[in-house]
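Re: How this chain folds, sequence and tokenised backbone to follow
How to read it: Take the token row as a discrete description of the fold.
Start of record: The labelled sequence and token lines come straight after this line.
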Amino acid sequence: MNIISRVLLTVAGVAMVATSAFAGPTWTFGPDDEGLLKLDYKGQFQLDYRDTGSGSDNDDDTMEFNFRRNRISLVGAYGNLGIYVQTEYTEDVNIGPFSVSDGSDNEFQMLDAQIRYKFNDAFRVRAGKFKYNLTRENLEACEAPLTLDRSVLIRAPYVATRDKGVAVWGNLFDNIFQYRLDVMNGRNDSASAPDSNFRYTGRAHVTFLDGEKGYGYKGTYMGKKKVITLGAAYSVEEDVAYGDCANETDAVDYKAWTVDFFAEYPIEGVGTFTLSTAYVDYDLDDGYKGADPDSGIIGVNGEKNGGYTKVAYMLPETPLQFFFRAESWSLAYLDGVYDQEIDWYGGGLNYYLRGQNLKFTLEYSMVEFDDESAQYEDFDSLTAQVQVVF
């Protein structure tokens, strides 16, 4: 805990020397400077503590400094046409969502690369690589979460947080109703799948008060908006995997549905209250019961259902926000255990030094498995994070 204390002091020092402006360079071009290009750096630097993972029996504490996110983004706009490009670099990550490894892998990737065109408020098109339209939490901006991060169990099978494809979306009825439809690659490994099919997803929400009308959501508006939003989505991809890979039989389809609710309400002189909850079901036709199921059917990102509830309170005059998160998941099969139950609890605080542009987050979390296995045991974590958007 002495290391954590030193990190807190370091963050305080950063706050003292922070400049008054946090914004990447912006260029204008074209007639009357109608075009715009903006470059940003987005970093989330963490000190992670895990009460397992080291020592001869992997029972000793593990600590690590590293980046949770380390990105450079470029956004451009000219009239109704826009682009968004974002890269990310990660290296030597030791402490993962559920395990501790030697952390020898490095990765540089094109995280986002998209073309955007707005015909009008009711019809817009997005093409390229971007976030698919299923769960609210995956669509929430990574730099504007309510808690430390999104759920590590929210990801859909056979895809990461982004996918490549085309989406249409828009706002109707004075921005109260929003629809989204997308056609994405889904599973890319066609050689191992029964067939090569696209993944189709539809999402809609109704939103009230100040409302949410953008493509991305936020986990909190820090008391600047009054919002109530109810959303739902459905996704399908046929013949995504085999329940019996050895014999290439028992093809299964991917189907998923979700519902979510978000509310944030500031009360003058009292503070801001936030509630966010969701449930999601990922169905792979019980392929985990097959004789030789595809690896994507089982495990953390395989067939499962569950959800989360997040609550928060932000002080009225001080940019300090306290939060709590509870998750409950049922995984079809994980490391030799059928119907594995996972409970995840976490609580902490956000201190907004310059809004989301300079923020300190501290979170303590506990993960409990209904049946511990060789690779998955209960653990506690403590994470201190400094976020900079510049």
